[in-house]
Amino acid sequence: MKFLRTLLLAAPLAGAARLDRRGKVSYDGYKIFRVAPEFADAVETELEDLSGMHLMRTAQHFDVAIPPESIESFQLLNVSSELISDDIGAEIALEGELAPYESLVQALDVAAAAVPDASWFRAYHSYNDHLTFLSDLQKSFPSNSEIFRAGTSFQGRAITGIHLWGSGGKGSKPAITFHGTVHAREWITTMVNEYIAWQLVVGYGNDTTVKAYLDSYDFYILPVVNPDGFVYTQTTNRLWRKNRQTRSGISAVGTDVNRNWPYQWSGPGSSTSPSSETYRGQSSGDAPENLGLRTHLDNVARSQGLKLYIDWHSYSQLILLPYGYSCSARAENINQQMTLARGVASAIARPYGTRFEYGPTCSTIYQTNGGSNDYAQDVSGAEFAWAFELRDTGRNGFVLPPEQIIPSGFEAWEGIKNLLNNF
Ligand code: 0X9
Ligand code: ZN
Question: 191, CA 20 to 30 Å: which among 121, 137, 163, 361?
């Protein structure tokens, strides 16, 4: 029953948002329920009236956040569900204040500046501190890296990444491109992208395997491809997903940049409604972030070839392969992609036993139209175009405690190394 997998996210805070003393949307008293799949459609229909939020819907589960005043009405629906979080506001508080960026350790070689310390990965950080971290990482590896820009966000921020290369020189090898935080609330993806970039820089001088990765591929890592949305999650609404694009005559804000890619753009895996969390935009590719990202991706693919593209998301612990737009279309090398994904999932599980499932996007999570990995596979011509859904499976969801940043980064790094060793 294909329609069960169709994503129709309700608008968050359709009713009036409650603000705390600092002017941020308050999630105090909101509960997360995991609704059994057979009741998912029924709950979806009621969600707007309940002022509830759609968090994650897969074939296996549907997670919704319900505000305190609607809990009783939700219970009256009498659907089978499990309580997975008692108070999102309390979890957001536990996630901690953003930590200042302070510590640097000594340089890897005398000509270079200090490399950022691993303590960076003990907390979440402000957007400006992420830019400083990236620039410090670059300065610590000056002959093999540069900061680059992949266009401009709706509000005018530079979409920023770090380009790393090895002994063949800049731009000489097939490219590997990572996009983090296209969905603003998926903060763990920012940290995991930076963790992988940091491991590549730190390892180049003292680990022959890591040196071989950089000598074989050019890495383009963009930890925050939706900077406006990310800043908004820090100033105003922790659970914001889309960009912050406004459109004349439309009051709802935001386009889902991961439904806006100009390939298989329209269809049931995206929404025409501007208030939906999966709003695809008025025309394909009309989000400024999408323009910058696809121009960069296509240029790199044209000049160097695109070996691997990964779009990093959370949560659900999945490795998603093409395609999202159709459950029957298959990438020509899907068997090889499945074999590789299986190896990556076992490498991820090795350190802490974290289980990732894998498979084509449409049948593994749900149908997505206008998604980045379909575009990267078929238009940019990537050999492999994947999306990861990082930790966890719902207990903390998007608000993953900072103690889990390093384990998430480490297991993802193990997975990426396995992939690089095997393709
Ligand atoms: O719906 C999405 O965009 C992703 N899931 S999430 O819950 N993080 O929003 C899945 C993305 C699948 N990959 C692409 N279509 N690129
Ligand atoms: Zn996402």
Answer: 361
Q: 172 and 52 in one domain?
A: no
Both 124 and 168 in one domain: the answer is yes
CB neighbour list of residue 394: distance below 8 Å, 6 or more residues apart: 32, 34, 56, 61, 63, 84, 315, 316
Is the Cβ–Cβ distance between 323 and 331 less than 8 Å?
yes
pLDDT tens per residue, range 303-356: 999 999 999 999 999 999 999 999 999 999 999 999 999 999 999 999 999 999
Residue tagged active-site, from 389, 403, 411, 414: 389
Ligand 1 contact, 9 CB (< 6 A): no
Judge if 162 and 56 occupy the same domain: no
Residue 253: inside a domain:
no
What does the alpha-carbon distance between residue 314 and residue 181 come to, in Å, rounded to a whole number?
9
Pocket test for ligand 1, best of 389, 393, 398 (most atoms within 8 A of CB): 389
Same domain? For 383 and 406 the reply is yes
Ligand 1 pocket residue status of 225, Cβ below 6 Å: no
Whether 243 is covered by a domain: the verdict is: no
Please work out whether the CB of residue 324 comes within 6 Å of at least one atom of ligand 1: yes
Which residue range forms the structural domain that includes residue 52? 2-94
**CA–centroid distance, residue 130 to ligand 1 (Å):** 23
39 and 153 part of one domain: no
Which letter, b or e, does each residue of 86-110 get, where b requires 16 or more Cβ atoms within 10 Å of its Cβ? ebbbebbeebeeeeebeebeeebee
Q: Is the pTM of this model over 0.85?
A: yes
Q: Residue 81: which CATH number?
A: 3.30.70.340
pLDDT tens, position by position, 14-66: 446 789 888 899 999 999 999 999 999 999 999 989 999 999 988 888 999 99
Last residue of some domain: 30, 60, 94?
94
Q: Are residues 81 and 145 in the same domain?
A: no
CATH number, position 343: 3.40.630.10
Q: How far apart are CA 169 and CA 145, in angstroms?
A: 10
The secondary structure element, H or E, covering residue 45 is helix 40-46
Q: Could you tell me if 85 and 112 lie in one domain?
A: no
- 91 an active-site residue? no
The closest-lying atom of ligand 1 relative to the alpha carbon of residue 389 is 8
Contacts of 73 (CB under 8 A, 6+ apart): 49, 50
